[in-house]
Amino acid sequence: MDVHGRIREILAETIREELAPDQQHLSTEDLIKALRRRGIIDDVMKELNFVTDNVDQELPSSPQQPICFDRQSTLKKTNIDPTRRYLYLQVLGGKAFLEHLQEPEPLPGQVCSTFTLCLHYRNQRFRSKPVPCACEPDFHDGFLLEVHRESLGDGTRMADSTTMLSISDPIHMVLIKTDIFGETTLVASYFLEWRSVLGSENGMTSLTVELMGVGTESKVSVGILNIKLEMYPPVNQTLSQEVVNTQLALERQKTAEKERLFLVYAKQWWREYLQIRPSHNSRLVKIFAQDENGINRPVCSYVKPLRAGRLLDTPRQAARFVNVLGYERAPVIGGGGKQEQWCTLLAFLCRNKGDCEDHANLLCSLLLGYGLEAFVCVGTKAKGVPHAWVMTCGTDGTITFWESLTGHRYIHKPVNPDEPPLAEQPKPLYPYRTIGCVFNHQMFLGNCQPSDAVETCVFDLNDESKWKPMSEEAIKSVCAPGATTSLPPFPPLCASTIDASVASNEIEMQLRLLVSEHRKDLGLTTVWEDQLSYLLSPALASYEFERTTSISAGNEEFQDAIRRAVPDGHTFKGFPIHFVYRNARRAFATCLRSPFCEEIICCRGDQVRLAVRVRVFTYPESACAVWIMFACKYRSVL
C-alpha cells in the first residue's frame, strides 16, 4: 500500500495548502481530517485484519514473520497481541556507505547489487526488503519486535519498564550484500542496545548506528544507519536516563569481570598443559576464536544445543543441511596465510555460506539438539591444513566423525601402536591427520596423548591422562546462556522460502536454452525428448535420498524404465551432477569442464535425442541441493 509514502505526500500538501501565513501550527486533528478526506484512513483500516484466534500460534522455535509497516507491503495478518509489549524498530535510510560512492544510479528494470538487513531478537527473525547498493541506501522498513519475559509468573503479564530493563538481549543486525550473480557477502554485524528507549521521553528515540566492517576490516566504518525505536503500547512510567545508564554500566562491568577471570583461568590451564610435554606447544588447542567483528570469544560459546523444530527430522538430515550451506574461506586482502574468522550463527545463516569452523559449530549444535553427545574437533587434514569437524560418542563407546562440509560419516577405530608390526590394523578412511582439542557448549578437552595423530587417538574423554579437561564451572561462567551480556543469542532456523518446483523448472528451461545455443555454435541441431527427461527424475530423487540417509533405493525401476525407453541398436548416456547454488549459467560452465558431460552435450550421431532434468531439494534457510542430469540417446553407427 505504501502507507508511509502516501501519508507523507498528503501531509506536505496539507501544510502547503492550509498553513496560512498567520497560522504557524497545524494540530493533529487538522492532519487527521486531511487524511480522512482523502480516504487514506479507510484504506488502511480495510487492509488491517486483526486476528482473534490464538489456536494457530507457532511454536517458539519457529521465527516470526516480519510485521512490516513499510512500503509495498500490505499488513495481511498481524498477530498483534494487545496484552504484549512491542518495540517498533524503523530503519530510515543509510548514509556514508562510501564504498558505493561511485556506483551509478540503477536504471529501471536493471539488475543491480542489493543490501539486505537481517535482524534477530529473542527467537524472532526479520529480513528487510533488498535495496540497491548506494552511498545512501534507501532502507525504509519497520519491524515489530515482541519484548517478553519467559520466566515463571511473567508469561501472561505485559512487560513494564523495570522488567524490560532486565532483558539484556541485544538486537543482532547483519547487513548482507548480494551481487548481480546472487553471490552474498557479509558487510557488517552489529549488536544494537535498544534499552536507551526506556529512558527517553514519550517512549521514542532516534539513533544513528555506525556499522563497522568484518574480519580484517573490523576497525573500518562501512556506513551509518538511521534508526528509530518506539515502545508500543507506550510505557506508563519512563525510567530516568540515569537509571538506564547505570544498569547498562553494571552489566558491562559484571561481564568484563567474568571474562577477565576466565582469561586468568585459561592462561593457568595452558601453562599446566605445556608442562605435560614441551611438544604440546605446536598442537592445535584453540581456547579462543575471533568472530566476524574481531572479538575474541571462548570457542565453547559458538556451540549450543539447537532444535530445528519441524524443519529437519533426523541427525543425518541435519548433516545434509549443513553440507549444502556454501563453503567459503574467510576473505583476506593480499596473500599470506589463512585469515581465521569464526562467525556468529546469524551471520553464517544469513550469508548462507561460511568456513569449515562455522559448518562444524552448526552441525555440532544441531546434533546436541537431537540429544547426541557431540563435540567439535580441531586439528589438521593432509599437508597440515587446519580443519574442524564433528565427533559423536555413542553410549557403547562408538566414535563417529562427521565431516560437516561433505556430510560423510566415518567410524573411528584406533590403531594400536604397540601391536607387533605384522598384526592387521584398521585402515582409516577419514581425511583427518592430527587432533588438538575437542569442545562443546559445556566441555573443553586438550589432547595430551603422546601422539596427536587421529588414527592412534583413544577417545576416552573421562581419562584425564589422555584428555586434559577445563573446569566445567569456568566454561559455564562465560558460555552458559545469559551468563554474560556479550554472548550473541542463537537464532532459530527459518523455513525455506524457495518453491522447489518453480526453481527446478526455471533452471531446467535455462539449461535447455544454454545447451541449444552451445550446440548451435558447433553447427548441431538440438531435439529434446520430454519423456526421456521425465524418466531421469527417480534417479535424482534417489541420489539425494542416498546423500541424506546413506541408503540407496529405487535404482532398479530407473534402470528398467531407461532400458524400455532406449530402442535396440541405440546408445544411452547419462551424467548426474550436484550443486549447492541455483545459477544455471555457472552450473553449465562447470558441467562443460567434465569430459563425460561435454560428450553428451556435444553428442553427434544419427537420431540424437537430448534430455535434461533438474531437481531442487530445499532445506531450511533457503539452502538447497540442486541435482542436474544430462542424457542423450542415439543410434549406434559403427
From TrEMBL:
Q: Where is the Centrosomal protein of 76 kDa C-terminal domain?
A: 497-635
Q: Does the keyword Transmembrane helix apply?
A: no
User: A single GO BP annotation from the record?
Assistant: regulation of centriole replication
Q: Where is the CEP76 C2 domain?
A: 79-236
Q: What is its main location?
A: cytoplasm
What is the superkingdom listed in this entry's lineage? Eukaryota
InterPro entries per the record?
A: CEP76 (IPR052299), CEP76-C2 (IPR028926), CEP76_C (IPR056288), CEP76_N (IPR056289), CEPT76/DRC7_peptidase-like_dom (IPR056290), Papain-like_cys_pep_sf (IPR038765)
SUPFAM superfamilies documented for this protein: Cysteine proteinases (SSF54001)
A GO CC annotation recorded here is: centriole
CEP76 N-terminal domain sequence ranges = 1-48
Sorted alphabetically, which keywords does the UniProt record give?
Cytoplasm, Cytoskeleton
Function of the molecule: Centrosomal protein involved in regulation of centriole duplication. Required to limit centriole duplication to once per cell cycle by preventing centriole reduplication.
Family statement: Belongs to the CEP76 family.
The record's PANTHER family line, in alphabetical order, gives: CENTROSOMAL PROTEIN OF 76 KDA
What interactions and quaternary structure are annotated? Interacts with CCP110 and CEP97.
User: What is the designated name of this protein?
Assistant: Centrosomal protein of 76 kDa
Species: Carlito syrichta
Lineage of source species: Eukaryota, Metazoa, Chordata, Craniata, Vertebrata
